Amino acid sequence: MKNYIIILFVVLLSSCKNENTKNTSIAVETSPKVLTADEIIDKSIDVSGGERFKKSSLKFEFRDTYYQALRKNHEFLLVRVLVNDKDSIFDMLSNVGFERYHNDAFVKLEDSIANLYSASVNSVHYFSVLPYGLNDEAVNKTRLESEKIKNKDYYKIKVTFDELGGGEDHDDIFVYWVNKETFKVDYLAYSYAEKDGIGLRFREAYNERYVNGLRFVDYNNYKSKDVSIPLEHLGKSFEDNQLDLLSKIELENVKVDLVNN
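Request: output the structure for the sequence above.
Response:
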């Protein structure tokens, strides 16, 4: 009887051990959810201001030029004001299209010229509020392999645009490095068409500040020494000090008012 109890005890211990092993195995197999590109960008937009962007009036200066953006739900008005002595040029891009005014007089433009001015206005406003705008219908997002820059871990998201709704520069390709801890965009790179080929730029965010709940940053703007390098490899080039500082992108006198629905 004693031997039987000992054997039964050993069997019970073995059973418990096997059960613990199974539980451990299950725990190991249960890994954190892998975030999609859309989910990563959603989180990044949220920590940068989220829904506030949709009901905001922004004012800032960039390279001695005045800009204003009014967004209310799905409507927007993007303004650029060029002042020279007593003359003023008002460029306005909205849901209904682009218009230019010289002082108070409407300026009729050829479509090709209007498209160039429209793209120029949109570009400054686009970069000013990133990553807001990356959920537009014409935007396509793909998650690339994660990367480490300056000992920090980053999600890497590739962005392309549909021709329909993607604007004049719909062929441009972007890569965003989103900090895995903060979900903020610390770096971005993009390729664009030039007369003699493809241009590459890499931007490093700095001078982060929140104005009325919206995140703004300035950028160190870099150019690659090697124009043949793939766009998604520019993070590694930056890490290896293989990029040349080309300019600084600085927004000044940023003001934000929230618009009632």
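The chain has one domain: 37-258.
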